[in-house]
Design goal:
The protein has 2 domains: 1-58; 64-168. 68% of the residues lie in helices and 0% in strands. The protein is built from 8 helices and no strands. The chain has helices at 12-24, 28-41, 46-57, 65-74, 81-102, 108-128, 135-149, 151-158.
Length: 168
C-alpha cells in the first residue's frame, strides 16, 4: 500500500472548498478523498465530517453498500442532536432514492421504508431546529412528494412485498 501524503493545516479551508467543488462536479469519490485528508490533520473538523457524509451519499447510485455503512457510521460523530437527526434523514432519503433508481422503480417496499424512515428523522430534526432553519421541513416535503408521485411504493409496502431493506 501507499503511505498517504499529509495535508498541511494551513490548506484545510482550501481543501474543503475543493471538496465542495468536486461534489458539485459529480465527482464524489474525489470529494471523499479530500475530506479524509482533512480529517487526518484535523479530526475535529465538523465541516469535513459533514462533507464526507454527503460525499458518501452521493455515491449511493454506484450500488455500494459500503458507502451506506460508512455514512451511517459518521452520524454519531456529528456535533449535536439536530445534525444527527437531519443527516441520518439525508442518508435514508438518498438511499431510498438510489434504490428507486437502481431497480427501475422496483423494490417499492424498500424505497417506501427508507423514505418514511427519513421523514421520521426529519421530524426529529424539525423539533430541534433553530429559528429560521427549515431545511428538515424542505427535505420532509421532498420525501412526501416523491411518495405521492409514486403511489405504487405505498401499495407494495402495504402488500408486504419484500425488498432490500438492508444496506446491501
Amino acid at each position: 500500500m501507499f503511505e498517504k501524503k499529509r495535508l498541511s493545516k494551513e490548506a484545510v479551508d482550501a481543501a474543503l472548498a475543493k471538496a465542495e467543488r468536486y461534489r458539485l462536479l459529480n465527482e464524489p469519490s474525489e470529494a471523499e478523498s479530500i475530506c479524509r485528508d482533512v480529517l487526518d490533520v484535523d479530526p475535529a473538523s465538523a465541516a469535513a465530517r459533514v462533507m464526507l457524509l454527503l460525499s458518501l451519499t452521493d455515491q449511493f447510485g454506484a450500488e455500494s453498500g459500503d458507502a451506506f455503512a460508512a455514512a451511517r457510521a459518521l452520524v454519531p460523530q456529528l456535533a449535536d442532536d439536530y445534525q444527527r437527526a437531519y443527516y441520518a434523514g439525508i442518508i435514508f432519503e438518498r438511499w431510498g432514492k438510489a434504490l428507486f433508481h437502481r431497480h427501475s422503480h422496483g423494490s417499492g417496499a424498500a424505497v417506501h421504508h427508507w423514505l418514511t424512515e427519513a421523514m421520521k428523522k426529519y421530524e426529529a430534526a424539525e423539533a430541534l431546529r433553530k429559528p429560521g432553519d427549515d431545511d428538515a421541513l424542505l427535505r420532509w416535503n421532498a420525501c412526501a412528494r416523491m411518495l405521492e408521485r409514486h403511489p405504487e411504493l405505498a401499495a407494495s409496502h402495504q402488500a408486504g412485498v419484500e425488498g432490500p431493506i438492508t444496506s446491501e
